[in-house]
Amino acid sequence: MKQSHGKCRAIQITPNLWCFKDTCNVFVFNFAGHGVAIDFGSGRWLNQLPAIGISNLDHVFLTHHHADQCSGLLRRKSWPFIIHAPAGEDQYLSPAGLKQYYHTMAKMNHTPYCLYATIPRGIKAILYDISGNSEKVLYGYCFRFVLTPGHGPNAISIIVKHNDKHLAFCGDAVFAEGKIWEPY
Prior knowledge:
mainly beta, eight-stranded mixed sheet, 11% helix, globular
């Protein structure tokens, strides 16, 4: 089932799992009205949550720090949900980490790593609580985190058993029919 709301449309993947085509693919689970998102993109999809039965977005899991995955989080100083990111991504996402990163790169006369991919300023209130080969249980579902560096040094993939299927989410490391952007 597809729903169109402007440029960012919702595509139902399985019962209670939606994909929003945003600056990246944003996947949103609906657990009895509570939402869990994987990646954030621009955030244009937020206003569509009531249409898919979500009254509260509770968690956002970032797979990595690239701007297309999280730049919409810069629109506000605080959010009513918990933002989780992989351990080590604070150097690319936190205000202090980004300041230090840009300072170090300038001091060495280097262009910051994938400047196009980093956000211009840091995001406050992110929990860097995702480590490789760990898991969190939310609403009775196990979210497994696997360290998959390559697309970013701390990138993770998330595996969730949902509706008798094991689903893997890897940010945009693999995109559009299995295209691999940066194999390392």
